[in-house]
From TrEMBL:
It is found in: Cell membrane. The keyword Transmembrane helix applies. It comes from the Bacteria. Residues 34-397 form the DUF3533 domain. Keywords: Cell membrane, Membrane, Transmembrane, Transmembrane helix. The chain crosses the membrane at residues 25-49, 217-235, 274-294, 300-317, 392-414. InterPro entries: DUF3533, T7SS_ABC-Transporter. The keyword Transmembrane helix applies. Belongs to the ABC-2 integral membrane protein family. One of its GO terms (cellular component) is plasma membrane. It is a multi-pass membrane protein. This is Membrane protein.
Length: 427
C-alpha cells in the first residue's frame, strides 16, 4: 500500500510583528487616511456651523399692499414707511429684500426664487390709525409667508429674518405712536402702542405631506449620486477583475483570471457602456423604493424618471473618466469630486446664501448642486425651468461632455505613450 505523500511545506514569510515594525509600511496609509479625515472634517463642519453669520444676500420678498391714505402732513402711508424701515434694518449684504407685488411674490415663491416673504396688508395704515385712536379691536398684523420647498433651514432663516425685521419696525413705529399719544394714554394703551404690530406665519407655497419637510429632494438627489458613484466603481472593479487586470478575492478564495489583451480606450468604452446600461436598473429601483414602497410625493413621474437616469449616469460616467485618468487613487479622487466637496456645497440642506464664500464658489460647478436644483424643481415647483430645472439639464449635458472628453482623452494618451496596464499572460 502506497504511503501518503507528505503535506506541502508552509511558505516562509514575514511575521505580522516584523511587518508592523516597518516604518515605511505605515507612511502612505497614515498620511492619506489622516489627510482624508482632516479634509472631510473641515469641509462638512465648515459649511454648517455658522449659517446666521454667513448669510449673504438671502432673497426674501417684501410686499407692501397698503392702500391707506397717508397721515396728515405725510407723503407716504405707513406701509411704505414700514417697508423702507424693514429694508434699512437688515444689512444689504445679508438679506436681499425684493420689493414685489403680492402676485409677483407668489410667483417667485412658486418658482423657488425666494425663501419667504413679508406681506404688509392693504389696511395697515387704517389699522394703525384705529389703534392709535383707541378704537381698534385687534393689532395690525403682518404676514410672513414661508417656502418649505426651499428646505426647512432655508425657510426657517427667511422666517427669522422677516420676523426680526418686522419686530424692529414695530418698535420704531411704537416709539412714534407713544410720543404722539403723550400723556393721554393710560399704562395699558402705552404698552400696546410700544409694540403695535403682530406677526402671523403662513405657508406661502405648500408642498406635499410626504416630502420630508422639504428634505426629500436632497435625499433623493443623494441617492442618485451615490448610486452613480458606487455603481461606477463596482463596474470599474468588476471589469478589471473579469479581464484579468485585478485579483478576485472573496473571503478565503482568491483567483486571477487570464489577462485579456485590450487597450485602455477599449476598456473605458466597455465600462461606460455598462454604466449606461446598469444605470437604468439602479434608478428604476430607487424610484420603486422611494415612491412605490415608501410613498414619497413625486409629481411628473416620467420627467423624474428621465432626469434621474441622466443625473445618475452623468455621475457614473464621471467616475469612470476619473478612474481611467488617475488609476488606483481614482476612486478617492471621485469621492471628493462627487461627495466630499459636493454635499456641503449642494445648497439643499443649508442654503448657499448661508455658507462661507468657498462653498458658494463650489456650488457653481459641483454636480450635486445642479442635480438637487433639478430634483427640487420637479418635486416641489411644478417642473419649472426657472426653478432650477433648466440649469440642471444644461449642467448634466456639460457633465456628459466633460466625462467623455476627459476620460477618452486620457485613455488614448496613455495608449499612445505605451503605458499598458499589464503585460498579458497566456491562459
Amino acid at each position: 500500500m502506497a504511503s501518503a505523500s507528505p503535506p506541502p511545506p508552509r511558505a516562509a514569510g514575514a511575521s505580522a510583528g516584523s511587518l508592523l515594525r516597518r516604518r515605511k509600511l505605515w507612511v502612505f496609509p497614515a498620511v492619506l487616511s489622516g489627510l482624508v479625515a482632516l479634509l472631510l472634517s473641515l469641509l462638512y463642519m465648515g459649511g454648517i456651523l455658522t449659517p446666521d453669520s454667513s448669510l449673504h444676500r438671502l432673497p426674501v420678498a417684501l410686499v407692501d399692499a397698503d392702500t391707506g391714505r397717508p397721515p396728515s402732513g405725510e407723503r407716504q402711508n405707513l406701509g411704505a414707511r414700514l417697508s423702507s424701515a424693514v429694508v434699512s434694518s437688515s444689512p444689504g449684504e445679508k438679506v436681499q429684500w425684493r420689493r414685489l407685488t403680492r402676485a409677483q411674490a407668489q410667483e417667485q415663491l412658486a418658482s423657488g426664487q425666494v425663501y419667504g416673504a413679508l406681506v404688509i396688508p392693504s389696511d395697515f395704515t387704517d389699522s394703525v390709525r384705529a389703534l392709535a385712536g383707541g378704537s381698534a379691536e385687534e393689532r395690525p398684523t403682518l404676514t410672513v409667508l414661508t417656502n418649505p420647498g426651499m428646505g426647512s433651514l432655508g425657510s426657517a432663516l427667511a422666517d427669522q429674518v422677516a420676523e426680526r425685521a418686522a419686530g424692529e419696525a414695530s418698535r420704531s413705529l411704537g416709539e412714534r405712536l407713544v410720543a404722539a399719544a403723550g400723556g393721554g394714554a393710560d399704562a395699558a394703551d402705552r404698552l400696546l402702542l410700544r409694540d403695535p404690530i403682530a406677526v402671523s406665519t403662513e405657508v406661502g407655497h405648500p408642498i406635499g405631506p410626504r416630502s420630508g419637510l422639504g428634505l426629500s429632494a436632497f435625499y433623493y438627489t443623494l441617492l442618485l449620486v451615490l448610486a452613480g458613484f458606487l455603481a461606477g466603481n463596482i463596474i470599474h472593479n468588476g471589469v478589471d477583475t473579469g479581464l484579468g487586470y485585478a485579483d478576485s478575492e472573496i473571503g478565503p478564495w482568491h483567483s486571477r483570471r487570464p489577462t485579456v489583451p485590450v487597450s485602455r480606450t477599449s476598456t473605458l468604452l466597455v465600462k461606460m457602456g455598462m454604466t449606461a446600461g446598469l444605470t437604468v436598473l439602479t434608478t428604476a429601483l430607487i424610484m420603486v423604493a422611494t415612491i412605490g414602497i415608501l410613498g414619497m410625493d413625486a409629481p411628473h413621474l416620467p420627467l423624474l424618471a428621465l432626469f434621474s437616469y441622466c443625473a445618475s449616469l452623468a455621475v457614473g460616467l464621471g467616475v469612470q473618466a476619473i478612474n481611467a485618468a488617475f488609476g488606483g487613487i481614482g476612486q478617492l479622487v471621485a469621492m471628493f469630486v462627487f461627495i466630499a466637496l459636493a454635499l456641503p456645497s449642494s445648497g439643499a440642506t443649508v442654503p448657499l446664501e448661508a455658507v462661507p464664500e468657498f462653498y458658494r464658489v463650489l456650488g457653481v460647478f459641483e454636480p450635486m448642486r445642479q442635480l438637487a436644483s433639478g430634483v427640487r424643481a420637479i418635486l416641489y415647483f411644478d417642473a419649472r425651468a426657472d426653478a432650477g430645472l433648466g440649469r440642471a439639464w444644461v449642467m448634466i449635458a456639460v457633465g456628459f461632455t466633460a466625462a467623455l472628453a476627459f476620460g477618452f482623452a486620457m485613455a488614448r494618451y496613455y495608449d499612445r505613450k505605451g503605458f499598458h496596464r499589464m503585460v498579458p499572460r497566456p491562459e
